[in-house]
Hints:
The complex is a heterodimer.
Chain A: E1 4-9, H1 15-26, E2 32-37, H2 43-48, E3 58-62, E4 68-73, H3 76-88, H4 91-100, H5 102-109, H6 111-127, E5 139-143, H7 147-163, H8 167-181, E6 185-191, H9 195-210, E7 215-223, H10 230-237, H11 241-250, H12 261-291, E8 299-301, H13 309-322
Parallel strand pairs in A: 1-5, 1-6, 2-4, 2-5, 6-7, 7-8
Antiparallel strand pairs in A: 3-4
Helix pairs in contact in A: 1-13, 3-5, 3-6, 5-6, 6-7, 6-8, 7-8, 7-9, 9-12, 10-12, 11-12
Chain B: H1 10-16, H2 40-45, E1 51-55, H3 62-75, E2 79-84, H4 89-94, E3 105-106, H5 121-133, H6 137-140, E4 145-150, H7 153-164, H8 167-175, H9 177-183, H10 189-204, E5 209-213, H11 222-235, H12 238-243, H13 255-272, H14 274-306, E6 310-316, H15 320-335, E7 340-348, H16 358-369, H17 380-388, H18 396-405, H19 410-453, E8 459-463, H20 472-483
Parallel strand pairs in B: 1-5, 1-6, 2-4, 2-5, 6-7, 7-8
Antiparallel strand pairs in B: 3-4
Helix pairs in contact in B: 3-20, 7-8, 7-10, 8-14, 10-11, 10-14, 11-14, 13-14, 15-19, 16-19
Amino acid sequence: MSRLHVVSGKGGTGKTTVAAALALALADQGRRTLLVEVEGRQGIAQLFGTEALPYEERKIAVGPGGGEVFALAVDAERALLDYLQMFYKLGGAGRALKKLGAIDFATTIAPGLRDVLLTGKVCEAVRRQGRDGRPVYDHVVMDAPPTGRITRFLNVNDEVAGLARVGPVHHQAQAVMRVLKSPETAVHLVTLLEEMPVQETVDGVAELRAASLPVGGIFVNMVRPPLLDEDDVRRAADGERQAVTRAFSRAGLGGARRGGPAERLVGPLLDQAREHVVRVRLEQAQRREIAGLGLPAPELEFLDEGADIAGLYRLAKDIRKQGVPGVAG
Amino acid sequence: MNGGRRRPETPEGAGEAAGGALPVAPAAPAALDGVARLDTDALLDDPATRIVVCCGSGGVGKTTTAAALGVRAAERGRRVVVLTIDPARRLAQSLGIASLDNVPRRVEGITAAAPDGSGDASGTDNGAEESAGSPGTADGRGPGELHAMMLDMKRTFDEIVEAHADPERARAILANPFYQSLSAGFAGTQEYMAMEKLGQLRARDEWDLIIVDTPPSRSALDFLDAPKRLGSFLDGTFIKVLMTPAKVGGRAGMKFLNASMSMMTGTLSKLVGGQLLRDVQTFVAAMDTMFGGFRTRADATYRLLQAPGTAFLVVAAPEQDALREAAYFVERLAAERMPLAGLVLNRVHGSGADRISAERALAAAEELEAGLPDGPDDGPATGGAESAGPSPTSAAASGAAAAEHRSVEHRPVEHSSMDRTADQLAAGLLRLHAERMRTLDRERRTRDRFTALHPEVAVTEVPAFPGDVHDLAGLRAIGEQLADRADQPAAA
């Protein structure tokens, strides 16, 4: 069963929202999940309507049956200092390194190290155990970098292990990689039913698979039910145009006479319906593309009111109903 | 591709391309009341504009905007190069830059907006509005050209090394494992290289307009920070530590410093292993001579971005996250004294029937679905008679004949089922409209929040197209929307 859920997706697909909803969905029946943000955008805080998250794990929501969601915004610099402190007791040396600009170097100029730190911190949370020997978190959900960068981001430890052939960094990188490539991890991609995001998803899945990273599922976000089909539009436009006009009129939208308000409504509404039909057709083509990947692809409804807490709970319910890819039962 | 029709009258022209890029012409978004309009044509036509930088968060259509501006500027007579960072495949194909070779390629199918030679009849009908913006731009210069390229960051990095180090040193750097990882695109390298490429393109002076798409960075202004970061790194002591062999020596005053430095390299070596540290050290040593050059150019590019010939366009979609990022951009650009031209708001929805609110449409739909008693004011009799007549076939003459052929007992059944269907159709149309109006309201609220915060920012809106844009015709259509010449008030 996957315990580390890495959520990626093209920009604008709602990756952070889905990650948050997934963390909520996994936090039921007393389970505890940790939602981690690694890109320093404070998206989680905005979503949950809380103040900016500090670099510490704090509870931000509760799930059904006593579940809990904790959140953490990882800061690369703090993570590096932590890491030095934790593994090498280098508190003082860490400060000295910072003074020398080494921390800047590590977290910006050599950004590969930054990704090592971020993935390292997340894997630490996955492996952390309480006094009772049980994992502190049942699940860890990472709001990860976008699809275009995800494979490299996750694989950075392989690269670093290759660069630093000995020493603690080498071992640390290898340990992280072991977690990321194990069935304990599932990488989920978020997409919309639009061409570019789906194309990027298909490419992303191929890259992840080529790098032997475990792909979990595809979250199809912001799905709206089709309301009218092509046939409907054709009939409303031709054969039954007048009947539709009269229906508008009877529903109180003005007189049905030629040039009356109800009649003038038909044209613009038909235009919208045609756009809708085009969109539905494109969406079906995208669904076929996604189905071709052979992965679970839960669909999440479009949130009319925007992604707020109530919306998150609804999405979490959607996810629970359809099952979390990589988590049986 | 020959662009026979130059300016498709937007709605029909776009609608024609059924099955193509833009099967349906979207309704224009409502007019922007009280907000300064961004005049992209004036910007593109102004010969003083040499660089346009499109920035914004991921997934807002930044690359498409950059490409559309490129097409439009070229067709209006400028010699343009578009630098894209990571275009979607089909968009890249539409520009003919599907192969990533780090060199600008000429885009075929660009048709001069002003005809070659004389600017008479056809020239004026076409150029009437343009000449209002900036007289004479398109005429004097002949047809424009569009070049496009996709950034290959590793290649760009390699080229810098090759250009600035002697062959032997260059070989040493290129073979260094640390360099290979760094240049192959650890996050961050892209930003440096985009800046570097921009500087290169500008230095070549082959184009009179460079349009840059920016990388989808985690913090989208990373590319602005790139030169500074490089600078702070180069100023830092760390680089000296890296280059200090781990032995103490030199003058007495330096002794303590050197000791601490050697302790530092010792620590680093413990952490990452001697091999990597040596790799980094040889890399830094080999790059040392080039760092000065790097920094000079990075600083020059930074100043170039502040120069009057540069214009920043912040691109966003009318969604909370995107506009929040946009506001951040606007503030950052101001703080950096970078010249902001305005905001491009992509994928804005409009409606030809926005006088009917979402609530009203929904209420009407529900009434129809609940099965209205036959019409209250239109009268049941008239309604029935009319629909039995022209409605089923819509051909006037056959209507009556068809009605006569129906058997008496058949007629009411068929009639009522037809009527119900019509009601359902009407209800479906209304539900769709309600959905559209909710989108519209949401977008407007989000946009208004932005404009209230930044009333000084000029805005142009591009309507949402149902499908993706991936050919020149589509880019041209977007370019027209960007120009937004049809300044018709709220009438439509």
